[in-house]
UniProtKB/TrEMBL annotation:
Recorded superkingdom: Bacteria
Any one Pfam family match given in the protein's UniProt record, by short name: FCD
Keywords tagged on the record: DNA-binding, Transcription, Transcription regulation
Entry keyword annotation includes Iron-sulfur: no
Domain HTH gntR-type: 18-85
An example molecular function term from Gene Ontology annotations: DNA-binding transcription factor activity
InterPro entries: GntR_C, TF_FadR/GntR_C, Tscrpt_reg_HTH_GntR, WH-like_DNA-bd_sf, WH_DNA-bd_sf
Protein name, UniProt field: GntR family transcriptional regulator
CDD domains, sorted: WHTH_GntR
Length: 227
């Protein structure tokens, strides 16, 4: 068994007790996004708890949460590993994302005053533009899309999104950093502001369909190049 110094997360440092669970979740999500924890990697609790400076019980709670999100899966021996997504799963995940966000857009279009939603999306776009580094960009991109869901005011829709957020992260990075960065470009998302302002649900759905289909196509093409 390797010690903490050889753990894939050994360079991340230890955590303080403030918002400990969220810090662990952020660290692990970022490590998966950047490839520090590559698809198929087995997560050994002893090594991870030592490298993060937390108890195994605390870590186990975070790992269960990531499993519920779909970012981690249990192998035949019951060990947790980082999800490996297939081409079909990438397309399926982006189809589900379209469905959730299209429903959210319909709810938003019904609002009498959509200006607060416009401001939230502008702020999320600004955060995406300011994101420094790949992990930050992934986080900002997913936050932007969650903002659309949350702005609908539909709590069930939001919970559905959060249930697949790990799958969304896995799919977003499945084709490597270059394809992901192309999909996360700010200019691909800027039309959202005007679409919200217009309240045109049909136009919003059409944009989201094209947005998700193009993203899935790019990722699948890159995945095929890698094999």
């Amino acid at each position: 068994m390797s010690d903490a110094s050889t753990s894939p997360l050994s360079g991340l440092g230890t955590l303080d007790r403030r918002t400990l669970r969220e810090q662990i979740l952020t660290r692990l999500r970022d490590a998966v996004s950047t490839g520090e924890l590559a698809p198929g990697t087995h997560l050994a609790e002893i090594e991870l708890s030592a490298s993060l400076g937390v108890s195994r019980g605390t870590l186990r709670e975070a790992l269960r949460h990531l499993q519920q999100e779909g970012l981690l899966v249990s192998d035949q021996r019951g060990r947790l590993t980082v999800r490996v997504v297939t081409e079909r799963e990438v397309r399926d995940i982006f189809t589900v994302r379209y469905g959730l966000e299209a429903l959210a857009f319909e709810e938003i279009a019904r609002l009498e005053d959509r200006s607060p939603v416009e401001r939230r999306i502008r702020a999320a776009l600004d955060a995406l533009e300011r994101a420094d580094g790949f992990a930050d960009r992934v986080r900002a991109d997913l936050d932007l899309h969650e903002t659309i869901i949350d702005a609908s005011g539909n709590e069930t829709l939001l919970q559905s999104w959060r249930h697949v957020s790990g799958l969304a992260r896995a799919a977003l990075t499945a084709g490597g950093a270059e394809a992901a960065m192309t999909n996360m470009a700010v200019e691909r998302h800027t039309p959202l502001v005007d679409l919200v302002a217009s309240g045109d649900a049909d136009a919003g759905r059409a944009f989201l369909r094209q947005h998700m289909d193009e993203a899935a196509d790019k990722l699948v093409a890159r995945m095929r190049e890698q094999h």
